[in-house]
Design brief:
single chain, about 500 residues, alpha/beta, Rossmann fold, Heat Shock Protein 90, 12 strands, disordered C terminus
C-alpha cells in the first residue's frame, strides 16, 4: 500500500514451525491485520516481492536458505528493501543479534514468544515505517519550496549584467533538471502501471484461450455428430412413419420438429460466441505486448483494432446517447519498426479522449437529436508521399477545442476534465512516446464545434540508435482441450 494504515496492515510470517505460525497467527489476527504465511526463504522472497507486505516476521533457522540469507536478498531487491524485517529466533547469542541487525533487520524477538511483546513490537515498527514515509514526503515538499525560493532570490539579483548572466544560467540548469525529473517520474509511474496492466491482460488472455480452444474444437465435432443424428432421425421417420404410441408420445413431449430446427441454430450461436472470445483473447494479447529494448516490426492496424475491441464497451449505446460509430479507413501500410506496447498506449489515450469528448457533447442534445446526428470516430491510415512515414488520423465529431486549449493540450498536467476524471498526463505521455521514443510527430487540428483530429506520423524504419529490429513471436497457449481422436464420418465428407 502506498500509505500504511496501521489497523489494516499486511504482515508476512516466515517460519517452518506450524506451532509458531499458529501462535503468531492467533496473536496477529486479533489485531485485525492481514496475514501472509511462508514456510521457507525462497517462498518468502517471492511472496514479499509480489504482495509488498508492510512488515515481515522472519525466522532465522529454516530449511534451505536461512533467515539471514533471506534478509540479505530482501534488502538487495529494490522492490522489497524498504519493508521492515523483525527476526524471530531461539538464539540468544549477541553475535547473532548483531549479525541480524547489520543485515538490515529493525528488531529481534527471542523465542518462546510473548504475544503481547510480538504485537507491541509489530505495532511500533509499523508506526515507525509510517512516520518514515511521512517524513520523506515532507522533506520532498521542503526541497521543492527551497528550490522555488532560490529561483525567486536569483531573479531579484538581476541588477547587474554579471548577476543576470549567472541567474539565467542557473535558471536554465534548474529548469532542465526539473524537466528531466518530471519526465523520469512520469515515465517510471506510467511504465510500472502499464507493465502491471500488461501482465494482467496477457495472463487473462492466456487463460481465456485454453477453454476457448477446447470449446471451439469440440463444437466442430458436436455439430458433425448432431447433423448426423438429425439426418438419421429423418431417415427413421421416412422408413418407419408409424413409430408407435410410445415413440409418438415422446416426440410430442420433446417437440421434436422444433428441436431439430433449433438445435443447429444453437450450435451456430455457440460457435459465434467462441469465435468472439477468441478474437477478444487475440486482441488482449496484441494490446498487452511487452516492449523490449529494441524496436520490432509491427502491424499498426492490429494495434488499432485491439484497442478498439478493448474500448468496445465504452462505444455501446447507453441511457444518455446512442452507440458511437467507428469508421476505419485503412491504407496499405507496411510493417512499422516501433515499440508496439507503447504505441498501443498512444492509441488508447487518443481514442479514449475522443469518447470522453463525445460523451461531454452528448449532454447538450436529446436522444433523438443524437440519433439524427450520430457520434463518430474515424480512424484512417496512409503513407506519406515518399513512403518513409506511416500516418494515422484519429478524428471525432465532438465539441472541438479553442485555440487556447489546443495550444496547451500536450502540456504536463493540463486537463479540461473535471476532478477525478483526468490527470493531464495522457496527451503529454503520448507525445513523448511518438516524438522522443519513435522520432515521429504528434499534432492536433481542432476548432470549436468541428471536433478534433490527432495526426500521428511514424517512421516506417526505426531511426539510427533506436535499437535493432527483432522478430516477435507470441507464445502458443498450452493445449488442454479434449478433441475426439476420430476421423470425420463418411456421411459428412
Amino acid at each position: 500500500m502506498n500509505q500504511i494504515n496501521i489497523d489494516e496492515a499486511t504482515i508476512l510470517l516466515v517460519d517452518d514451525s506450524p506451532t509458531n505460525l499458529k501462535v503468531l497467527t492467533g496473536a496477529i489476527t486479533s489485531c485485525g491485520w492481514e496475514i501472509l504465511v511462508a514456510t521457507e526463504g525462497e517462498t518468502a522472497i517471492e511472496l514479499a516481492e509480489y504482495a509488498k507486505p508492510d512488515l515481515i516476521l522472519l525466522d532465522v533457522m529454516m530449511p534451505g536458505i536461512d533467515g539471514f540469507e533471506t534478509c540479505c536478498r530482501l534488502k538487495a531487491n529494490p522492490g522489497t528493501c524498504d519493508i521492515p524485517v523483525i527476526f524471530m529466533t531461539a538464539l540468544s547469542d549477541t553475535v547473532d543479534k548483531v549479525k541480524g541487525l547489520s543485515l538490515g533487520a529493525v528488531d529481534y524477538i527471542t523465542k518462546p514468544f510473548q504475544q503481547e511483546e510480538v504485537i507491541a513490537r509489530a505495532r511500533l515498527h509499523l508506526r515507525l515505517s509510517l512516520l518514515t514515509k511521512q517524513y520523506a514526503e515532507q522533506n520532498s515538499l521542503l526541497k521543492q519550496e527551497i528550490s522555488e525560493r532560490c529561483a525567486a532570490e536569483a531573479a531579484l539579483q538581476q541588477l547587474t549584467d554579471e548577476l543576470e548572466r549567472r541567474v539565467e544560467e542557473r535558471t536554465a540548469e534548474l529548469q532542465s533538471a526539473l524537466h528531466r525529473l518530471q519526465q523520469t517520474q512520469v515515465q517510471l509511474v506510467q511504465t510500472e502501471k502499464m507493465s502491471a496492466l500488461g501482465q494482467l491482460v496477457a495472463g487473462v488472455a492466456h487463460e481465456i484461450n485454453n477453454p476457448v480452444g477446447s470449446l471451439a474444437g469440440n463444437l466442430n465435432y458436436i455439430e458433425i455428430y448432431t447433423n448426423g443424428m438429425l439426418e438419421l432421425l429423418n431417415i427413421y421417420k421416412k422408413q418407419f412413419p408409424d413409430a408407435g404410441g410410445e415413440i409418438e408420445s415422446k416426440i410430442e413431449a420433446l417437440d421434436l420438429e422444433f428441436l431439430m430446427g433449433d438445435l443447429p441454430q444453437l450450435l451456430t450461436s455457440m460457435k459465434a460466441g467462441t469465435e468472439r472470445l477468441r478474437n477478444i483473447s487475440t486482441s488482449l494479447r496484441v494490446f498487452s505486448r511487452a516492449d523490449t529494448g529494441a524496436t520490432v516490426a509491427f502491424n499498426i492496424h492490429e494495434g488499432i483494432d485491439s484497442t478498439l475491441l478493448i474500448l468496445k464497451h465504452r462505444l455501446k449505446a447507453n441511457k444518455k446517447r446512442p452507440a458511437i460509430k467507428i469508421i476505419t479507413e485503412y491504407g496499405d501500410l507496411p510493417m512499422v519498426e516501433c515499440y508496439p506496447g507503447q504505441l498501443n498506449q498512444v492509441f488508447m489515450n487518443l481514442i479514449a479522449n475522443a469518447i470522453d469528448a463525445l460523451d461531454e457533447l452528448s449532454q447538450g442534445y436529446s436522444f433523438d437529436e443524437l440519433i439524427a446526428r450520430p457520434n463518430t470516430i474515424t480512424v484512417r491510415t496512409d503513407l506519406n508521399s515518399d513512403g518513409t512515414h506511416a500516418i494515422i488520423f484519429i478524428k471525432d465529431n465532438g465539441p472541438g477545442m479553442t485555440g487556447e486549449v489546443q495550444d496547451r493540450a500536450f502540456d504536463h498536467f493540463f486537463t479540461t476534465k473535471t476532478v477525478g476524471f483526468g490527470t493531464g498526463l495522457g496527451l503529454y505521455i503520448a507525445r513523448q512516446i511518438v516524438e522522443e521514443k519513435h522520432q515521429g510527430r504528434l499534432r492536433c487540428i481542432s476548432a470549436p464545434g468541428e471536433g478534433a483530429e490527432f495526426i500521428i506520423e511514424l517512421p516506417v524504419e526505426a531511426p539510427p540508435g533506436g535499437g535493432e529490429s527483432n522478430s516477435d513471436s507470441e507464445e502458443n497457449p498450452d493445449r488442454c482441450a479434449y478433441i475426439p481422436n476420430r476421423s470425420i464420418p463418411v456421411w459428412q465428407k
